[in-house]
Design goal:
Layout (H helix, E strand, L loop, with lengths): L2 H15 L3 H13 L7 H7 L3 E5 L15 E5 L1 H8 L6 E4 L5 H8 L5 E6 L4 H7 L8 E5 L9 E2 L6 H11 L4 E5 L8 H21 L6
Parallel strand pairs: 1-2, 1-7, 2-3, 3-4, 4-5, 5-6
């Protein structure tokens, strides 16, 4: 999703939650200054024309139900849960609040790619964890205008789960199947975030003319 299309959603989200665009920019600037531009042809080679299985970290996730014939794009803690169950993860999408140790380990592997997101609430986590990563295997993302930065992207999406789906769309997945999403399995602010995730996945469904989520 181009930033011009994403920006109205972003503005509604920061108004809804009281987030700071300036803090988002500061976190993004830190991440940008500590990454090199990632060759996105690597992601294109993984995802294009493949079925993308986007895996959320809902408590109800059952790794055995993840299809074996697709590219697995897993949201944060779901990646570690899948790996522990012997399920290969091709791309992990994280803002470092779920499984940062596993994300760092994955970045040092031969095959895994980690998509690391910067926002105003995770600047401390970025400072703490980024030195543990093999940054050549890290794609940096932001929720503000990526044209302000050299090494960051904005593919659209808000939570790790729906950002995983937007990434799959951006790199030409032939089909997107979601597993491990439960939009009611939380309370308070997290539940509101999940409602936004569901809303955005419905937008993506309409854009792709594909029933990604009901």
């Amino acid at each position: 999703m181009e930033f011009e299309l994403w920006e109205p959603f972003y503005e509604a989200i920061i108004e809804d939650f009281g987030y700071s665009r300036d803090e988002d920019r500061r976190a993004a600037r830190f991440l940008d200054e500590n990454l090199e531009p990632f060759d996105t042809e690597r992601l294109d080679a993984i995802v294009r024309d493949e079925m993308a299985v986007v895996v959320g970290d809902a408590p109800s996730l059952e790794p055995s139900r993840v299809p074996e014939d697709g590219v697995v794009v897993a949201a944060d803690g779901a990646a570690e849960r899948l790996s522990d169950a012997g399920v290969r993860v091709d791309v992990m999408v994280t803002d470092l609040d779920g499984a940062p140790t596993y994300a760092a380990e994955m970045s040092h592997g031969d095959d895994g790619t980690v998509v690391m997101h910067a926002h105003g609430d995770n600047r401390d986590a970025l400072e703490r964890w980024l030195p543990e990563f093999e940054v050549s295997n890290v794609v940096g993302t932001t929720q503000v205008d990526p044209r302000e930065f050299d090494a960051l992207h904005n593919f659209g999406g808000f939570t790790d789960g729906d950002r995983s789906a937007f990434l799959a769309d951006a790199f030409g997945a032939s089909r997107i199947e979601v597993v491990g999403f439960d939009f009611t399995a939380a309370e308070g602010e997290k539940r509101e975030k999940l409602r936004w995730a569901q809303r955005l996945l419905r937008v993506l469904s309409e854009e792709r003319d594909e029933n990604i989520v009901g």
